[in-house]
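so the lab meeting is tmrw and i was supposed to have these ready like two days ago... anyway. pasting both below. for each one the top line is the aa sequence and the line under it is the structure tokens. i havent really looked at them closely yet so no promises
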Amino acid sequence: MKNAKPVANSKRIKVLNNKNFKAATKRGVVLLDFWALWCGPCKIIAPTLNEIADSQTDFMVAKVNVDHNQQLAQKFKVRNIPTMLILKDGKEAGRIVGVKTKRTILKEVDAVMAG
């Protein structure tokens, strides 16, 4: 399971881990999904995140597997998954917990980008 892939893959979703996280998130806006292979709701939200990643160029969509990157989950106090953070220049600017619609997610990201 060490090399477990995200539940659903878009070529535009970046897989982040403890090693590449800081460099990948230090500039711009990132929609970051904390997920796990065993998480049913994570499987439900995955196609929506793929659609967002495939249609957006203004921000990056990324995933962090909580089972393999517990330090990141702890750093951001992720207690439930799926949890999506909206990072702006490396800092948390928004948080979405649970399965949400594409419209709701994009509204939250747009608010961070506008602010």
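ok protien two:
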Amino acid sequence: MLIESLRAQRATFMWVCGTAVIVLGSLYLLGEVQLLPALIGIGAFVAVVVGRSVITHYLGREELPDTLKHSGELTNKEFRSVLVKAMTEPCIFVNPEGRVEVANEAARQNFRFRGEMPILSSVVRRPEMLGAVEDALSEKEPQDFAFVERGEYDRTYACVAAPVKTNSGLGVLITMEDLTAVKRAELARADFLANASHELRTPLTSLAGFIETMRGPAKDDREAWDHFLEIMEGQAERMRRLINDLLSLSRIELSEHRRPSTNADLAAVVSEVGAALLPVADGQQVKINITGQANGIEVMGVRDELAQVAQNLIDNAIKYSEPDDVVEVEVLTGLSQDEALEKAGRRMDGAAQFSITNSLGGAATKYAVLRVRDNGPGMDRKYLPRLSERFYRIDPGRGLKKGTGLGLAIVKHIMNRHRGAFLVESELGVGTAFGVLFPLSHEDKELSDLDQLLEERAFRKNVPKEATGS
């Protein structure tokens, strides 16, 4: 390696040349060598030392001479740039002048900045980071710090600001580790334990009571046994559904901040779910009427999660329908944002309307809509904001229906992950309609994350056309 070899040999050359000068000078003083040959020898060795020093001087600078650039070696600055850009997590190098010398794409998206060599304080508004950089420079020791990026989805970062010596002074390398998934896992685990212990207490108490009765007073009453076993089977089924829904909700919450990167056919999913729920509808003498395309509506989404949304909404509509009622299921596509919102949840005159969640992106995006309407008892306006709360029941009558109280909460979190919207409208004595919006997959293929889309739009809005080349 050229650079390493020259640097390693500098000390050796200087030592050899110094020894040669001393030897030649001593021989001249002793009369063993004539003056001219001694001067020529000393001059030659000095020239070698000076030449090597000049080369080494250039090697220590940020830029090498052209003759050395063609050797394939990287300069210090180039090496830092390659290293920072190779990091998958956000990473920034701040030069001794306090400017962002290089930042990888993850850091640029996170702090939403463009351009080259901006002042760090003009890009980052986090006092924790700015303070850590100052401490790293003053104490010359790595500084650990953390911060939470507030937004629609809070993101937690654990960071290190480490001083790095350069030829022009002391810089700082900032590395950030995204701990959002870890924090969400901790919260999900705590919520799971709290909710599971609360909701499972009732069926477990019921099962324990029946077992005690069957072992005691009803020990020989076979008729009572049959009745008790039927009730116990229902309680066990309730616990099974509850555990499945809690696990499903926990999984979705863990990945809620990551937008899906795959495509799925929404129309085909709805058709399959409708066919699978026909036996349930027939059991309650309810009809399911699906209108719209049977397939070919591609949205950016996870197929299993789309099926979960459709199943929860259609099953919920069947549950609150009366015999001979019809559950209307509509699948629409190619709608603008305003059209999609209108079709999803603004169609019942006099109905109370509420947006449970809305994570939609730009108005230019096209959307697909799934709308499910029943002709059940409907709900009063005051209950709508709480529909997606876990285990929430409007009244004892609705609470007697089969279910865990988690279905709409699951739908809400799935729609947040898919950067869609979830709306409801309801009128007492008329019925209830739930609508969800999914961005079509052919929109914004290169901008697979909503944050990146928002960043691009803000950049184009604030930067003059001449600067963007448009």
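from a quick look at the 2nd one: The chain has four domains: 2-69, 76-178, 181-254, 259-470. Residues 259-470 form a domain with the Heat Shock Protein 90 fold (CATH 3.30.565.10). will dig more after coffe
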